[in-house]
Fold these 4 entries.
Entry 1:
Amino acid sequence: MKKSIQLTSKLLSAAGGGNIRLDKFLSTQLPDLSRTQIQKMISDGLVQVDQSPSKASMKLEGIKKISYTFPDLELEPTQIEPEAIELNILFEDETVIAINKPPGLVVHPGVGKPNGTLVNGLVHYFDQLSDLNGKLRPGIVHRLDVGTSGVILIAKNNTSHANLASQFEKRTIKKEYFGITWGLWKESSGQINGAIKRKRTDPTIYQIDSSGREASTRYQVLNQGDYISAVAFYPKTGRTHQIRVHSASMHHPIFGDNKYGGGTNKTKGFIPEVTQRFKHSLKQIARQALHAKRITFMHPATKQEIAIEAPIPTDIKNIQDQIHGIC
């Protein structure tokens, strides 16, 4: 639900004055939402001031119009329920954990998903996790889409969490993803630059938009056949759905990515045998063929560079094997 507030001097004065922060002002107008939820709305691009994205810390001065897409008011869970969820631990020491996240596993609880997440498994198996991201996201430094598999880093304490977060912010952490895309790429390697923001008509979808947040992805085509290709992606920034949006913007959506045009509609126009083969493959994988293969970072404690790799899962390998096997 989209709404807007036309600010006036009287309204600002009642809320605390013209120098009030955007997130604090919205807290006075949306009492059913916590300050954290409002800040997330802003960071997710659901709030605009005079039709432009803004920051939670923006000071409201003068008469402005605030537009926002109202989130689901169903309350988030207030505590984490430990669950014996099987975790594939790639690395662990006193400060850092690396998990090979399977596809379909949500990273942390939220509205409509109070349990069955990676975090529920983490609090079951580990006595100590950082809490810089709040009590519902213990240890979580970064995230992967629910349908994306691969390496995700977990911080055991706040010192290591802050260190890793700083590396992500400074873009010194190197990330490599492996994906299967539709079509043949004209160039075997290149850089995709395109700012990303939420789609106004559907906030669950992101799109290339010059008014969005800067995003950059390098790619290297590893192998390609007549219909699909294996591609390595090296995202410099870490925007939500970045690789999926960028690859789709090049007319090469990720295989199986229904949200960005890589689903069943892409099977049309081929000879019947090829169409049926791809439809079967899409049904078998039932997610986007994208895997966080490798992450390289400076260890928070030892200050030594460390690289952690997650093997390509069987469902993506099965698609990879079809690159030259469909004719």
Entry 2:
Amino acid sequence: TYFVSNPSAEPVETRAPFRARSDQPQHWDPITGKIRALPEFSPEKSGTRIPLRLEPLESYFVVFAHPASMRRESAGGVNFPKSEAQMTLEGPWEVSFDPNYGGPEKITFEALKDWTQFEERGVRYYSGIATYRKRFEFKRNGTGAGSTTYLELGTVHDIARVRLNAQDLGVVWCSPWRVDITAALKDRVNQLEIEVANRWSNRLLGDQQA
């Protein structure tokens, strides 16, 4: 088992060497718990070389778990298929804060923006959970059967829960800030809801300046 990590703010692609020589490599995602084969690998005198891709600040495990039936570069698939943007969610978002913590019950963000950059104190120094809601229409753009669709969240401060069409798709708390929405996505109107929670230190900062 090998732990690989990208400490940089840029994606990294490499053909990484490993000392293991006789087993089938697998990709183990420590966030989702998903395990999948890495079909591209090639033998070398001292081990195995595997094409890898890591998103900014991403890490995962490469595990040699099962005997490989053939020690050659696989032609049956790629380790990290190229992704293609299907659409960008632009325009206003409806955002709800908890009035018990000093935030507005409902406000419209004309575009996504860090709430600590707002002038309104109830938003700027809010600490707790805020819920972002947006309706959007989606039409698949040549995406084949069996493909995976992700929602890329950018950078979240500090943790977020994603629901699409009332389906809870889990919590995102580290890079890469994305969630698999394949099972919940409809080829028509969709209702997206993202709960974002930040740290209490933001409220303390506001209280200090009051």
Entry 3:
Amino acid sequence: PAAGWVGLVGLGLVFAAAALSPLAGYPIGADVDPAARSAGPSAAHWLGTDHLGRDVFWRLVLASRAFVGPGAVTCAVAGAVGVPLGAVAGWHEGPASTAIRAALGAVAAVPAVVLVLLGCARFGAGPRELALFAGLAAVPSVAEAVRARIERLRREDFVDAARAHGLSDLRILVVHLVLFACGRAIARKLLEAFAGFVVLEAALSYLGAGFGLPEPQPSWGNMMAFEWGRDLSWALLAPAAALWATVWATVQAARWFAEVDGG
């Protein structure tokens, strides 16, 4: 579907912006210009300036770094923990599967935001801790998607045929079931985890109170908080629109993986 491809391209642009934006040399922390405060869009400032005279466009682009790297860590944690647990729970019956499902259910019973806030309150609220606990909160969803599919497929004829051709159970599980049978489902769940992290990071940066990126480091959340209550301007609308567009693109990409996967 076209929306899925648009979403994938949009995500690619966001990742490219996060990777390349530091090359522009924009002086974060030394960009205050009282003479240009609250200016409208112009050739010098494509999206205008905020009430301190800082360039909205460049801060918007640089703010993508607040969630792209940590969001990738979130996906890595969710995949590295959730996929093996789901694979083991789906392949084996008995106490091991029961214990894994019980542990995953206990984690899933705690709302993701609460789990992240509790973890950050105990171990720190930096981007690394935020990414780690957001990834752990996404583990049950990833693991359940893998478990359900492997449990359904492990008794199929092609598994018996693979064994008859001398393939080990480990190879059947890892290559044929996890990589090929579950690959798109895993990608979909990881994209959903990334979208959740984008919203979470923006919300915590907006709220402040020690969570998220503090000023003057730009985040779409703290950019909106910094301008909230003032005139409706691009300094407020641009980060809100960028947040919506990024989440929309991620959701569309996840839906594309769901459709090509058959549901």
Entry 4:
Amino acid sequence: ITWTSSESVNTVSLFAGATPVSTTSTVDAVNTGVGLSALVTVHRADRFRVYLVPRVAYVRSTVDLDAGLAGAAVDTTTNGWLASGGVGAQVAVHDHLAIFGEAGGQYSWQRGTSSLTTSRSEDTTRAAGLRSAVGVIVYF
């Protein structure tokens, strides 16, 4: 879960010599997700193993924008799913240290709604991409 909040103050003079007008805009955003992953070993030999890493996750995002003096307010909510998978390899280089690498792909599907002060819109987004990871495991 992540939460972001920002505030900006904009000062504008409508024409030369006019008194400047200040507006304050705020944005609050919350992103959450929960997922399920597995590490399935498909081959093991001494200090080396090959594994599969399937994952599925539910994600949700909400964004509230208040444009201040302009009177515009936008509320956006997005819900969706993410599925990914890959293959990885791990080697233990010491009793307390291992390194690993993974490569695979992911696909996401999200549906969102946005409500402006006077209108509402809906959209669907699909995305596919590659994913990879490398890392070190320290055993205590």
